[in-house]
Amino acid sequence: MTRKIAVLAGDGIGPEVTQEAVKVLEATGKEFQISHGLIGGAAYDATGHPLPPETLALCKESDAVLLGAVGGPKYDKIQPPELRPEVGALLALRRELNLYANVRPVKTLRPLLSASPLKNNRGDVDLVVVRELTGGIYFAPHIRSEDGNTATDTCIYHRFEVERIAHHAFTIARQRRHEIVSVDKANVLETSRLWREVVSEVAAQYPDVKVTHLLVDNAAMQLIREPAQFDVMLTENMFGDILSDEASMITGSLGLLPSASLSDSKGKHPFGLYEPVHGSAPDIAGQGRANPIAAILSVALLIRYSFDDHHTATRIEDAVEHALEAGLRTPDIFEKGTRMVSTTEMGDAICFKLESAV
Fold this sequence. Notes:
Isopropylmalate Dehydrogenase, 2 domains, 39% helix, globular, 10-stranded mixed sheet, two-stranded antiparallel ribbon, alpha/beta
C-alpha cells in the first residue's frame, strides 16, 4: 500500500529544509505518494488566506503531513490577526486535524555534545516533552477593548483534554524510564489545579510510572541546572511551547530537533503532522545556511509514528549521526576542526549515508 504524505514547505527556510527532508524520504527506498500544498505566508500571498481549503483537504486525505515553517516579519501586521500565518495556518491546522499531542524528543547527538551551551557534559540530554496542543490560552477567546487599552486572553482547559494528553505521556513513559514530571502553576492558576488533579487521577492507572509535579518556573530552572534528571515532561500548551524551546537549545541549536503533533489513530497508527521545532528564519532564507537536520529527523518521526516502521526511522537517525561524525556542519553548529557545508550538501551527505547502509 502506497502511503500518502502531504508536504507543506511554507515560508523562509521552510522550502530549503523540506526539500532535503523529501530527498531523504526518497532515499529510504520506500514507496510514498508525495503531494505538495501551500501554507503560511506563501499561501496568503497566492490566495489571500494562510490555509487554503485545498491545502486542508490535502492534509485530511493524507496519512501524514510534513511541514517546513510558517510566518515572518512580513506578515506580522496582517489584519485581522486570524489571517497571520501562525494563527490562521498553524493553529487552525492543529484544530482542524485534532493534533492534540505534541511530542518533542530532545536528545543530544553525541558528535555535538560540545555544541551545548551547558558544559561539563551537562548538555547530555535524552528527554521527551509531551505538550497539550489544542487547548489552553492559545485556543480560547482573545479580546481587545474598544479603546485599545485593555487586552484579555482566556485560558480554558477541560478535563477530557488533560486526560487524553496524560494517557499519551504515560504510554511514552512506559517505553522509556517510567518517569514523568508534570509541569503546572497550581499555586496560582485554577486551570493548573485541574491539570494536577486530573494527572494524579490518571497516574493511578499507571502504578509502574513515577510521577512528580513541578511548578513551571522551577521546571525552567531545573532544565538548566540538571537537564539529565528529566525523562518525560508533561505540560499544558503555553508552558510546553516555552519549555520545549528551552530544552531544545540545550542540544546546541534549534536546527537539530524534530517534533510530532499527533491526533487519534487513523487506521492502525496515529495521524500526525511532523515539523522541525525552529521557525522560518527569513534572515538566512535562500543562502544555503539553514540546518536541515531537524526536518530530516522529523521524517524519521513520521515514519516511526504514523507508519510504524522503526527500522527505517533508525536508519535515518543513524545516517544523521554518521554525517556529523564525519565532521560535517552547517553554520549554526560549526566549530573549529569541522567542515562547514551548505543545506543541500548536508542533505546529500545524509542521503549518501542512508543509501549506503541499506
